[in-house]
Amino acid sequence: MMQYLAQGLILMAVFFGLLAIRSAYLEFRMQFTENTRVSMEDLFVFVDPMVILKLNLVLLCLLPAFTWMITGAWPLFILVAIGTAILPRACIYGLKKRRLSRFIAQMPDALTMMSASLRAGASVQIAMSMVVNESPTPIAQEFSLVLRSQRLGMTLEDALSAMGRRLTLEDVDLFVSAMTIAKDVGGNLSDILERLSLTLRNKSAMEGKIRTLTAQGKMQGWVVGLLPLALGVVLYTIDPDSMSMIFKAWYGWLLIAVMCTLLGLGAFFIRKIVSIDI
After folding, report:
1. How far is 118 from 138, CA to CA, in rounded Å?
2. C-alpha angle 195/200/205, rounded to 5°?
3. Residues near 134 by beta carbon (within 8 Å), at least 6 away in sequence
4. Which of 74, 60, 24, 9 is nearest to 233 (CA)?
5. The pLDDT of residue 190
6. pLDDT of residue 1
């Protein structure tokens, strides 16, 4: 009787465990697809989020298993699993950062084009339409979205503010502020845009010089941060019996905690040193 009762309790525990896993998966799938959909729409890339989720799950099953079969090192297995899990978010972040960099690089030319159009007698909408027709992506896409919002009944200030909230860039905030102040206070908008274009061009040149001068420091930070991890993986592959004591004894875990703390502090201070705000 006790045996049947224990088996029944085990079956109930497995059943409720599967229900909890299914509920957690459905919640994760809903959040993942919604966040991915919003991020991809901001990038003007229209892909079904479920395709990305399924591809990520397949890679999450295959890559760690393949790593375990090749190396047999479970620390590397865990690292590959974590890297595969965060791969979609990292790819989206990289694409967004690259798109914003291209947008910033295209802003001075677009403002110069708008200034010339306004000086020739065109309206603001026509000047933006010229930017949409003559400029490459992504700035053409963003200005096209502003014009489309206007056609749907939104005011120019609200459409530009929405673009500023969507991009969260200082250069865009300066442009939106210049457009709003020129409309409320008055003034020669073409001259304002021309001066803003010159300011953004000089700012971009200065940031390029700073990136060039701090590139060596950033590379040193990456090398210093990744060298202990790479050395640990190599030593574990060469002599797994001796290196396994790090993961079995308490002092090994203490050593790992101290190493991670020091690496984190080093990366933080290096980033603070080489990050120069203009």
Report:
1. 22
2. 125
3. 113
4. 74
5. 86
6. 61
Residue with tokens 């993961």: 247
Cα–Cα dist 172/206, whole Å? 18
Distance between CA atoms of residues 72 and 77, nearest Å = 8
The pTM (predicted TM-score) of the whole model is 0.75
- DSSP structural state of residue 153: T
- Say which DSSP state 234 is in: H
Q: Give the residue carrying structure tokens 């919604």.
A: 34
Model pLDDT for residues 198-251, shown as the tens digit of each residue: 988 888 888 888 878 777 777 777 787 778 878 877 887 787 777 777 777 777
Q: For residue 66, what are the CA distances in angstroms to 69, 76, 81, 159, 244?
A: 5, 11, 11, 49, 21
Show Cβ contacts of residue 141 under 8 Å, excluding neighbours closer than 6 positions: 44
Q: How far is CA 277 from CA 58, 87, 218, in A?
A: 41, 29, 15
